[in-house]
Amino acid sequence: MRVEENGGSVDEDGLISTAKQAADHELVLGFGRLLGAAGRLEYILGRAIEVECGISHLVFEVLLILGRAGGDGVSMKAIGQEQVLTTGGVTRLVDRMEEAGLVERTDDPADRRGRLVRLTELGERKAVQAARVHLENIRRHFLEPLPASHRRQFMDDLRILSHTARDALPRLR
What is the pLDDT of residue 99? Predict the structure, then answer.
């Protein structure tokens, strides 16, 4: 037996049975809004970093990874896993960053064949400059539209979603 709901038929057990019903489903719409907001914010905030700092958002993200790690640096593999990039993609990105003077490669003391990537002084300055621009735009476009009373819970919920999704990804080898 089928029951009519929101312009589409639903099986008694609640299964979607039409394309319209699928498109109008609350969870599908909610996830679509999340992806849409993320894509638009990525463009707005990434464009500001490019215009004001001369680097891409991806380069900025790698600068942040390296800044968090500090010390001797981070392996190429770790950068790839953090950014979900292929080995070739990481190599090309780090090559461009090295040519721009933002990073340098050093020998990995724990692996004779391995190389670590670390920030240069210019990379450190660029990370700070871009972070200042980024924080201003995060406040303006990401937090200020939300009611102040919801912001802390929203940030906590995003952390949970991010960690859950990260943990569900297969590990790159």
Answer: 96
Exposure pattern of 94-125 as b/e (b: 16+ CB <10 Å)? Answer: beebeeeebbbeeebeeeeeeebbbbbeebee
Contact 111, 70 (CB under 8 A): no
HEC string of the chain equals CEEEECCEEEECCCCECCHHHHHHCHHHHHHHHHHHHHHHHHHHHHHHHHHHHCCCHHHHHHHHHHHHHCCCCEEHHHHHHHHCCCHHHHHHHHHHHHHCCCEEEEEECCEEEEEEEEECHHHHHHHHHHHHHHHHHHHHHHHCCCCHHHHHHHHHHHHHHHHHHHHHCCCCC
Give the residue, 52 or 113, on which the prediction is more confident: 52
pLDDT digits (tens, 9 = 90+) for 18-75: 999 999 999 999 999 999 999 999 999 999 999 999 999 999 999 999 999 988 888 8
Q: Sign of dihedral through CA atoms 63, 67, 72, 78?
A: negative
Position 53: which residue type? Answer: C
Pick the more confident residue, 58 or 87.
58
Q: Is the pTM of this model over 0.85?
A: no
Q: Which residue has the tokens 């990537």?
A: 117
Q: For the chain, give the mean pLDDT.
A: 88
